Amino acid sequence: MKFGLFGGAQAVPGEVVTEAALGYHEYGEYIQLAERLGYTSAWLVEHHFTGFSQLSATLNYISYLSGITSKIRLGSAVVVVPWHNPILLAEQIATIDQLSKGRYDFGIGRGYRANEFHGFGMEMADAQEIFEESVMLLKRSFTETERWSYKSDRWTFNDIIVEPPVVQKPYPPMWIGAASENSIRGLARNGFNLLLAQVPTFETIGESISIYRDELDKMGEEFDPSRVAVTRGLMVANNDNERAEAHVLRGKFLTEVQVLATDPRFQSKTFVPAERHKNRGDPTEVSEAGAIIGKADEMIERCERLYDLGVRNVLLHDLSGSSEALQQFAEEVMPHFAGRADDTAQAAE
């Protein structure tokens, strides 16, 4: 079982409760520590216009991280493709793949926050169409070896060739965040890896993985657990007081994100969970139903539940930004899952 990190730096650390509450340089040191402790990946968010300083220029920051680390994989979770020129985006991704020496994971999505679409003057209803066309252009950009042209109602590109070439062939692993059954089945059919969010319960995570596996089975493809990553809140709490404080911190974050995501026309299945998600609306109950929380024995038990569902790649989101919590999890939880024979074929059956 592999453990990575999820989150991002905060330009004004400590002013508002969000992410790890660490500045741009401090968060880099946090990732360096994670690398030394044996965490295998770090995934960075991309968000805009929040008012509480979430990371926005994610690819720039990942380029920085690639220069101060040497082996931890670096991922975007996620680049919201409809907001970017796909050819300029392809050039940036290829550059990061070069700088990181092939350590980049290309997480992408169509977006879910109403305030961001409003800020960019875009309709959420157009996002899927833009996303699909842009992904096609991204793949073509990574694989074409001769100049090419393209014209549609949205984009025109004449005699282009994207440089530099990517290190990972045919292109960096492409991951998509999804929640609904249709989305999960669609990304499986199109060969994408699956990113699952931190809010849904353990039971819902199991259902989502089963849907992904089922679609792969229909295609005659074997399920590879390395193609699924599950984000979970990390709330190290060694006593009741620490547990209560962790709930206050994460509750504020979840509430603020829900407000940004909510639109009466388009409710996000990620941060405004579907009816099948239990305990919606109460941040404390949401965390108790899905986070990695507590002392070592409870955190191990919760990771075991994920393991039994077929999860082999967990991304931990610790809003405290605590180096002590990072080290405690690495020393007391991670060794429990090291070197274990992989019995994924029996998991989630």
Word description of this protein:
By secondary structure, the chain is α/β, with parallel strands linked by helices. The protein has a single domain (2-337), classed as TIM Barrel (Alpha-Beta Barrel). Helices cover 40% and strands 16% of the residues. The protein contains eleven helices and twelve strands. The strands form two sheets. Strands 1-2-3-5-8-9-10-12 form an eight-stranded parallel barrel, surrounded by eight helices. A two-stranded antiparallel ribbon has the order 6-7. Strand 1, helix 1 (24-37) and strand 2 form a beta-alpha-beta unit. The longest helix is centred in the last third of the chain and has 22 residues, at 240-261. The protein is globular, with a radius of gyration of 20 Å.
CATH topology: TIM Barrel
User: Spans with pLDDT under 50 lasting ≥5 residues?
Assistant: 264-279, 344-348
CATH architecture: Alpha-Beta Barrel
Walk across the major sheet and give the strand order.
Answer: 1-2-3-5-8-9-10-12
CATH superfamily: Luciferase-like domain
Strand content: 15-25%
What descriptors fit this protein?
disordered C terminus; 349 residues; 40% helix; globular; 16% strand; TIM Barrel; alpha/beta
Quick summary:
The protein is an alpha/beta fold and 349 residues long.
